[in-house]
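batch job 7 of whatever, protein = Deferrochelatase
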Amino acid sequence: MFGLGAAGAAVVGAGAVAASSLFDEQPVAHASSTSDPYPFYGRHQAGIVTPAQDRLHFVAFDVTTDKRAELVDLLQEWTAAAARLTQGKEAGSFGAVGGAPEAAPDDTGEALGLPASGLTLTIGFGPSLFDDRFGLAAKRPSALADLPKFPGEQLIPEISGGDICVQACAHDPQVAVHAIRNLARIGFGRVSVRWSQLGFGRTSSTSRAQATPRNLMGFKDGTNNLKLEDADLLRDQLWAAGQDGSAWMAGGTYMVTRKIRMMIETWDRTSLLEQEQIIGRDKGEGAPLGKKAEFDTLDFAAKGSDGRPMIAEDAHVRLAHPSFHGNAHLLRRGYNFVDGSDGLGRLDAGLFFIAYQRDPRKQFVPVQMKLAKIDPLNEYIKHVSSGLFAVPPGVRDGGDYWGRTLFE
């Protein structure tokens, strides 16, 4: 899955910020600066429709305890720490230097003196958590069905899946890394890190106040992504509801992650004309082919002087467009990554794709299946990691905790 946002999710409505789409029907303003905190408590978890921050540290954990009570205790401890960390505080009440010198500190200390930097922490539960260890099998949502095998994917099991994931987004990479490090520290003996991913340079906008960023192929990405301001579409396409079949997920959503390696060197030797034809947009402005401005409507009927469609039949933006998939939309908030080189002088780089939706079976799966079969972009990308997680509703107040509705 690459460039779904740029494929043209329909955008409706206008306004500065949606009142109903983020924190419990209360108006939410954008942070006045990149140093400021976002609220932690609310009907929905932060880090979904929150204006996408610049940096990511994503981690998937395996639960190592088989005791339900220990897992619940961990979620409560994590929630308390997350509430503090997202407000720019240390992970524990004694902090990095305030406790007994003979004891391990309550915080690792590398973020001392740093502001909140817009940190958000978002938790999700993978299909593997709903086995027979914790008595959760009957509560596995039908929408959390295992993803099918897509043509051409080359998934590496060691960097796929996981019982629990945490997405840390911030404007300062040290703040995001600090948060994940401390959650892993708190979880010692009950969870272990399965895999993690650092990301930089968001590859989509989740608010109209943000400019459209570029991916590592040089194209604007996420032009028509679902936005914070699209309250009606978010209610229909993003947030799970009680009538969906899993009451505990009401106010939650479903996350799909895909690590997509780009064949950077091959792409860089491809002509500009071919690059634009593959994507279906021009590389400079980001306009649909045949149009002039980035936000012009995609016209799939328009033809050039040679009688051929301006946007090719197999162009990425056409294949992924909601109009060809029952009006299915995704809210994307992925990131670029560069993980060094592969030892052969090639960059190990690409897109860490993250998308939220109400039901992956109806949204991500059909779109990705179409792309995997015939998208010419497949010559330049390779899917190497995959994750699927049920993201529970938000934490209401200090007496609540991540995943409470699942364990009630």
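notes: The chain has a mean pLDDT of 92.
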